[in-house]
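Ticket 4471: requesting a sanity check on a complex prediction with pyridoxal-5'-phosphate. Repro inputs:
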Amino acid sequence: MLPQPPVQSVPPIWKRIFRQNFRKWDALADFLDLSPQQRQSILTAPNFSLNLPLRLAQKIAKGTLDDPILKQFLPTTAESLSLPLFVADPVGDGCSRPSPKLLHKYDGRVLLICTSACAMHCRYCFRQNFDYEVNEKGFDNELALIAQDPSIHEVILSGGDPLSLSNRTLNNLIHNLAKIPHIKRLRFHTRFPIGIPERIDNDFLSLIGKAPFQIWFVIHVNHPKELDDEILEKLHALQKLRVMVLNQAVLLRGINDSVSTLKELCETLANHGILPYYLHQLDRVKGATHFEVPHCEGIALIQEITKQLPGYAVPKYVQEIAGEPSKTLLM
Ligand SMILES: *Cc1c(COP(=O)(O)O)cnc(C)c1O
Ligand code: SF4
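Returned structure tokens:
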């Protein structure tokens, strides 16, 4: 008798969609009908690779480089400009790591770097040079450190993007955190649903629904064009499970540094019960000089939208300053 072939397990739909991401600059340039001249400004072999989900690519205007989504994801020659204050680790993460995968900077909260993988690669990402220790499997060491410190009440799953992990891994993690009595809240910092909302599948919703602590879900949207009905429906499914959904955005030159764009973003979020939590001043990471908006302009923008929106729809304008005990309010 012939040996039986191994049972093929079908990968979840979101993983199959993830594999269709644009990872080659010329395929993206063809898809967007970019001219030979426009292609000249593309950085073809960047340190931080191109990675863009099809859903986001479909929202980009054709034949132009001047698109608020494209600018966030396309590596361009502007990244080659180096300025002395733009460095590899702008927020001093390297100094507050009790273990390679744990950051403990603020009272009561720890941030677990649970993966290096993301659904997309944002050019301004402050963690693009992070020294991920992904070879080590599992979180036993980190869970032990968290269990030993009763001052910790919240674990923030970050990365990379925690939704790059499988439902099985997330389920194990939640199960293990649930055994630690001083953990009262679990937070996800994720941009995954903006590129691949299919990630919020029924298995994920069911594991979230069973979690024994309050879940806070902090998404990352910078421009209203990134959102669509399917994404909002998935987030609504989480809200129905009494998950709190918040947004953080980064203030980015030429992308969301206008009153009309910021207002539309915050208002759209508010219309769907998503709280605009933070507007971050850009972290000065190497290669991101062209994204910076000066503080004074950021303050003027916030002052203006404060006049036009309800208080809850105005995000806190903050900056992360290495060594400070919290994010620093800029106004
Ligand atoms: C930003 C951040 C947090 C969360 O800060 P909040 O103000 O609670 O949102 C926690 N840990 C680290 C290391 C951070 O960078
Ligand atoms: S999704 Fe978040 S962690 Fe990943 S590249 Fe973008 S900003 Fe960085």
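Notes from triage: Residues 83-329 form a domain with the TIM Barrel fold (CATH 3.20.20.70). Leaving this open until the requester confirms.
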